[in-house]
Amino acid sequence: AQSVTQPDIHITVSEGASLELRCNYSYGATPYLFWYVQSPGQGLQLLLKYFSGDTLVQGIKGFEAEFKRSQSSFNLRKPSVHWSDAAEYFCAVRIKAAGNKLTFGGGTRVLVKP
Amino acid sequence: EAGVAQSPRYKIIEKRQSVAFWCNPISGHATLYWYQQILGQGPKLLIQFQNNGVVDDSQLPKDRFSAERLKGVDSTLKIQPAKLEDSAVYLCASSFPRGQANTGELFFGEGSRLTVL
Q1: How confident is the model over A82-109, as a mean pLDDT?
Q2: Mean pLDDT score of chain B, rounded to an integer?
Q3: B41/A44 Cβ within 8 A
Q4: What is the pLDDT of residues A50-61, one digit of tens each?
Q5: Secondary structure string (H, E, C) spanning chain B
Q6: What is the 3-state secondary structure (H, E, C) of A74-110?
């Protein structure tokens, strides 16, 4: 079965510092990859997605992610975080051969220090 | 454009009672999903509808959970009887399939938070 791993449960970063969130998936085929953000009490909002082509994708709110096939990874980055980036971030994988089901990782909670 | 609407936002019940959640997807979205998100975990798909037909309900605990989308628009998720471990946020999402790849983005509602005492 496909699985998505986000190794870091919590990350604390200072405002203005860079941020990188890790995501690894386990499946032989190339998946569709997504990053969602969830603010407290809110639903999930799509930050960015990768289907094919350029492995570096740009998203909303200044986020980007890089797909590395050799490492089965899709890490999310932001050069300079803002206090409003404090939220929970979920990586998700969708594989056509597996019925197109969207499978989420366990999430990484980001805390931003002033 | 209106987003995915869910109600109620919060519900507290005692174990063995029943509860129902309602979802109205974005207009025109053929695919509707119900996810369960337990505190500290990522969302887990419970059931996926394509129009009014079930595509995937492999992770739906069918002895206590049921869902329907009779007219292919809004949907109801029911739990009867509820257990303590059903305490979670129930997220509804919808998408409009893009051709055969079905890579359409999922749009999520704000969720219904259930507490079972």
Answers
A1: 88
A2: 90
A3: no
A4: 988 889 999 999
A5: CCCCEEECCEEEECCCCCEEEEEECCCCCCEEEEEEECCCCCCEEEEEEECCEEEECCCCCCCCEEEECCCCCCEEEEECCCCHHHCEEEEEEEECCCHHHCCCCCEECCCEEEEEC
A6: EEEEECCCCHHHCEEEEEEEECHHHCCCEEECCCEEE
Residue B100's pLDDT is what?
42
Residue A24 in tokens = 């690894």
Q: Scan residues 46-105 of B and list those with Cβ closer than 8 Å to A.
A: 48, 55-56, 91, 93, 101-103, 105
pLDDT at B54: 92
Instruction: Check if B26 contacts A (Cβ < 8 Å).
Output: no
